[in-house]
């Protein structure tokens, strides 16, 4: 590649290839990386092989000679030497913990609880004999008892009820409605009552659950000159005619207001 090399010279080409000049020829091969440690550091930038001058332990780089404790080591102590990590754990005597949360680093079994002639393991939950409303728990040889928690009720006090064998109050079902309140003045209609809220074409009924259901009436019969009866929804086309503000009965003849020479008659059609 345009550069002279002395016989026996060795060098590293890009791509981690090791080359040598032998007898006027260049011989290259991939760089071999014999790793002699258990926790080598990753290959540095521009290098070809991992390094044993430090340690990589649980994703954390450690310098040579570092002493550290792993995150979940439970008081275990480790040291980095020549790329190798060696750890030691404390020796603990057998037996139960002096308390539920021991201050030392030794793992142990929490003490059991003896309560009313029975033995319970640490963390066991139980109820007193004949009293399901009290819950007890064994914590490191000590028994702690408390009342069972009750839910928060959203009903008024007079609707709360404690049934036989129950630990907590429950809400009674509200009384069935006796009618329907329809305005701010406290006017109540009994269940089944039908009324008109002011529009003769609209009728309302008080339903069994205390709600009000209303429905409008559609007038299908039409004629040019119907009679409108006060309080009645649809105009009446069978009783007579309304003409120029006056009411005339069926077959009644009357002069025209616009032309006195014309005679009009009310006909049912």
Automatic annotation (TrEMBL):
A Pfam family the protein falls into: VWC2L_2nd
Main location (coarse class): secreted
Domain VWFC: 1-53, 53-114, 111-172, 178-238
Record has Glycoprotein as a keyword: yes
InterPro entries reported for this sequence: vWF_C/EGF_Fibrillin (IPR052080), VWF_dom (IPR001007)
Gene Ontology biological process terms from the UniProt entry: cellular response to virus
Subcellular location, record wording: Secreted
Gene3D superfamilies xrefs: 6.20.200.20, Complement Module, domain 1 (2.10.70.10)
Superkingdom of origin organism: Eukaryota
Lipid metabolism as UniProt keyword: no
Keywords noted in UniProt: Glycoprotein, Secreted, Signal
GO CC, one annotated term: extracellular region
Protein name: VWCE protein
Organism field: Haliaeetus albicilla (White-tailed sea-eagle)
